[in-house]
Design goal:
Blueprint lengths: L2 E3 L2 E3 L1 H16 L3 H4 L2 H4 L8 H12 L4 E4 L36 E4 L2 H10 L1 H6 L2 H4 L14 H6 L3 E4 L2 E6 L9 E5 L13 E7 L4 H4 L6 E6 L13
Antiparallel strand pairs: 1-2, 3-4, 5-6, 7-8, 8-9
Helix pairs in contact: 1-4
């Protein structure tokens, strides 16, 4: 049986591949174990992990955006540093000796495709109506929509850069409220290197579901070895 999504047909081989990849993620299978699945189930169209990840990326439509960044984590070559070829902090070249290959690459996963994918699911979209249907009780604070900061945002016009749009923040029931969180951690035992995941929380969901693992949106990981001098450049 074929499945129709966004005008594209997923055949049985596509579904088998996606189910296998979902199993790896949900059960934390190692790369070595995943690559043995094709031998354990020779009749199933399960490919190597490398080819599977390429296929999943193609089927999902998620394409990361790559930026050059300083290998010492000083800056990302965005904003005011977009045209530079040397790090203004440590003077390290942006590119290797050939002049075209970046010293280091930071990958960012765009937000909009992630949100669109969520709204494809009718049940998920209905859950995201929690925010628009929430009725605040002035005597209680049950979540962020009862706080003073949210109420102050409702009295502000939406700004895109320096342009002021003729509408209030959160004036449309289709608006999506996102919370950003990040913190550094040491991925290795020696703790000499750190990484900074950038994650988003979907506040349109009911409070009991916002922070579940499957609802957290990871849009990038700022690599180490240390904290950036200007973290906003990665945002």
């Amino acid at each position: 049986m074929d499945v129709l999504t966004e005008g594209n047909i997923l055949d049985e081989s596509d579904l088998t591949l996606l189910h296998a990849y979902a199993l790896k993620l949900e059960e934390c299978l190692t790369d070595k174990v995943f690559n043995k699945l094709c031998f354990a189930f020779p009749q199933s169209p399960i490919d190597s992990l490398k080819n599977t990840e390429k296929c999943v990326q193609f089927l999902s439509g998620f394409q990361p955006v790559c930026y050059c960044f300083c290998p010492s984590s000083c800056i990302c070559y965005t904003g005011p540093y977009k045209t530079l070829t040397k790090c203004p902090k440590c003077n390290t070249d942006c590119y290797k000796a050939n002049g075209t290959t970046p010293q280091a690459i930071y990958e960012y996963l765009p937000i909009i495709p992630c949100l669109c994918t969520m709204l494809v699911s009718t049940s998920y979209a209905m859950k995201m109506q929690y925010w628009s249907k929430h009725e605040a009780d002035p005597t209680k604070i049950t979540n962020i929509f009862d706080g003073t900061h949210y109420r102050s945002l409702q009295e502000m016009f939406i700004m895109i850069g320096t342009e002021e749009l003729p509408m209030w923040c959160f004036s449309d029931p289709h608006n999506i409220a996102l919370g950003l969180s990040t913190d550094g951690f040491g991925p290795f035992k020696c703790h000499t290197k750190t990484a900074w995941p950038i994650i988003l929380f979907n506040y349109n969901l009911p409070p009991e579901e916002r922070f579940l693992k499957q609802n957290i949106i990871l849009i990038g990981v700022v690599p180490g070895p240390k904290k950036s001098c200007d973290f906003d450049l990665f945002l």
